[in-house]
């Protein structure tokens, strides 16, 4: 049985909903979509403009409604594919266990010998980089550039470090070294396998996720501001039924997941097509870019090359000595050793640990002398570059390993449920007394006209700047406004005709 406080709270919430449903200028519950309140009774007396939250709430409600209805399908796709991606790391370990793991032997063979085995098995490729196994039972990855592979793709040849036997070769994508299964899911999540055109969907979802979340949090907290309602703000209402029960679950779960949604939206935008480029330009203008070693050889060796010795075969100390030199600078496993891109350039050795605490130190090693020519420490990165690195790795489920992947899966399930409850509320709110096939009507039109100018003006300026920086937020918002204005004009014209007749 519900307690007295629950009953009082439900009654108060019902009153708040009735007030919201019958906002000035809106149709009463059960009226056809777009109908104005009392259109046949002439002009209504002017009411004082509310201030602060009372003025903003109807506008937020309308924005939340339209964004939820029209953008939610894209968010739902992103959530389902994101849930698949959260599980792809563990699936990758199972599917490619033969290539990734080997029986532990007595001693490791030199990297030079392992690279030679990979080149012998795949002579069509050029060695780009080597990733020695970071655990005793891990294979060595020799990464080859092969003609015909797409950008950011390399052929990974897996070599047993104890026998130099090649255990297989698979396509490897990106800096995380995603293998075919995870690559397919990643591209499904990011572009629906449609290339650059498909990336628009994921950028649209990331651009609007924070807007829908912020509006929902403000509306949910705003209607339950009393301290006595804290429990009903954070937990679903036990005594509620029907649409009220659905709203309770929608709001409570949304509150708990809001920070995660904000995080996914922000980090997702950093590598999006248009907003991501704006972020990159901003970081470059503020000198917040990620540092990297130059890749130049030592000055003495470069001078010899410039004076004609480039016509002779270039001496190379070998990848094993390069790795030893990097170890001397404190670069522990896991590392990737990138081969020189051109004659006279240096090897680049970089730590690639993306789990906390991250290891991202890098060193340039002259292949002719084996000397370290430059070192870049992760601790010296600009704060913005560190935050970007941590954010991307957490978004991908790498930063905290399995716990990170479970948290992402929970967030995706929460987003799927919140979207489903939102659509259910929309359906339950339909005007069944007039047309059983109708869907729920939107909140009252014209809410922005009741916002005081001192609040409206800065809000418009901030919105314009945000929409410029995030184009796939601004363009759909303009389309929503234009469509809403057109529909409102048609409804007003339709409602005036009977009065004229």
Task: Tag the structure with descriptive keywords.
disordered N terminus; elongated; 16 helices; 501 residues; single chain; eight-stranded antiparallel beta sheet; alpha+beta
Explain what this protein looks like in three dimensions.
Helix 2 packs antiparallel against helix 6 (180-191) and helix 7 (199-222) packs across helix 9 (242-270). The chain is elongated and about 90 Å long. An 8-stranded antiparallel sheet has the order 4-3-2-1-5-6-7-8. The longest helix is centred in the N-terminal third of the chain and has 34 residues, at 53-86. The chain has 16 helices and 8 strands. The chain is of the alpha+beta class. It has helices spanning 4-21, 53-86, 88-95, 97-100, 111-121, 180-191, 199-222, 230-234, 242-270, 275-285, 299-306, 319-328, 383-395, 401-428, 453-469, 471-500, and strands at 126-131, 140-145, 153-159, 166-173, 335-338, 347-351, 362-365, 372-376. 29% of the residues are buried.
Shape: elongated
Write down the overall mean pLDDT: 83
Q: Provide the low-confidence segments as ranges.
A: 1-48, 300-313
Biggest sheet: strands side by side, in what order? 4-3-2-1-5-6-7-8
The quaternary structure here is: single chain
| Radius of gyration over C-alpha positions, nearest whole angstrom | 30 Å
* Alpha-beta classification: alpha+beta
Give a quick account of the main beta sheet: strands, pairing sense, barrel closure.
Answer: 8 strands, antiparallel
Strand residue content: 5-15%
Total of helices:
16
| Gap from first CA to last CA | 56 Å
Helix content: 40-55%
Element-by-element helix/strand order: HHHHHEEEEHHHHHHHEEEEHHHH
Give the strand tally.
8
């Amino acid at each position: 049985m519900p307690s007295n406080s629950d009953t009082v709270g439900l009654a108060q919430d019902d009153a708040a909903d009735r007030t919201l449903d019958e906002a000035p200028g809106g149709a009463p519950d059960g009226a056809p979509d777009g109908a104005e309140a009392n259109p046949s009774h002439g002009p209504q007396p002017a009411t004082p403009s509310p201030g602060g939250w009372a003025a903003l709430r109807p506008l937020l409600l309308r924005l939340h409604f339209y964004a939820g209805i029209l953008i939610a399908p894209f968010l739902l796709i992103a959530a389902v594919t994101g849930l698949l991606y959260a599980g792809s790391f563990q699936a990758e370990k199972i599917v490619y266990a033969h290539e990734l793991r080997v029986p532990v032997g007595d001693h490791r063979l030199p990297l030079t010998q392992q690279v030679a085995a990979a080149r012998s098995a795949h002579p069509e490729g050029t060695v780009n980089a080597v990733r020695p196994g970071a655990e005793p039972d891990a294979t060595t990855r020799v990464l080859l550039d092969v003609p015909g592979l797409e950008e950011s793709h390399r052929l990974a040849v897996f070599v047993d470090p104890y026998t130099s036997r090649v255990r297989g070769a698979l396509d490897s994508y990106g800096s995380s070294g995603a293998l075919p299964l995870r690559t397919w899911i990643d591209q499904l999540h990011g572009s629906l396998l449609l290339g650059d055109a498909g990336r628009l969907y994921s950028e649209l979802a990331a651009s609007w996720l924070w807007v829908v979340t912020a509006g929902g949090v403000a509306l949910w907290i705003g209607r339950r501001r009393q301290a006595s309602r804290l429990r009903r703000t954070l937990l679903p209402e036990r005594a509620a039924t029907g649409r009220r029960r659905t709203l309770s679950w929608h709001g409570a779960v949304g509150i708990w997941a809001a920070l995660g949604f904000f995080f996914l939206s922000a980090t997702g935008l950093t590598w999006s097509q248009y907003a991501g480029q704006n972020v990159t330009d901003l970081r470059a203008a503020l000198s917040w870019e990620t540092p990297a070693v130059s890749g130049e050889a030592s000055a003495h060796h470069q001078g010899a090359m410039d004076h004609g010795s480039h016509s002779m075969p270039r001496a190379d100390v070998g990848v094993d000595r390069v790795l030893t030199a990097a170890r001397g600078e404190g670069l522990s496993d896991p590392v990737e050793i990138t081969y020189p891109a051109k004659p006279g350039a240096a090897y680049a050795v970089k730590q690639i640990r993306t789990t906390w605490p991250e290891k991202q130190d890098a060193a340039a090693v002259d292949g002719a002398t084996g000397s370290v020519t430059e070192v870049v420490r992760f601790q010296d990165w600009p704060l913005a570059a560190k935050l970007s690195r941590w954010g991307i790795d957490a978004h991908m489920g790498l930063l905290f390993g399995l716990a990170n992947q479970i948290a992402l899966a929970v967030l995706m399930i929460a987003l799927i449920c919140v979207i489903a409850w939102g659509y259910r509320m929309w359906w339950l709110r339909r005007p069944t007394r007039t047309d059983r096939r109708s869907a729920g009507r939107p909140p009252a039109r014209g809410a922005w006209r009741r916002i005081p100018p001192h609040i409206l003006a800065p809000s418009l300026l901030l919105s314009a700047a945000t929409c410029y920086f995030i184009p796939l937020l601004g363009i759909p918002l303009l389309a929503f406004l234009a469509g809403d204005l057109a529909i409102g004009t048609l409804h007003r014209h339709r409602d005036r005709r009977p009065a004229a007749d």
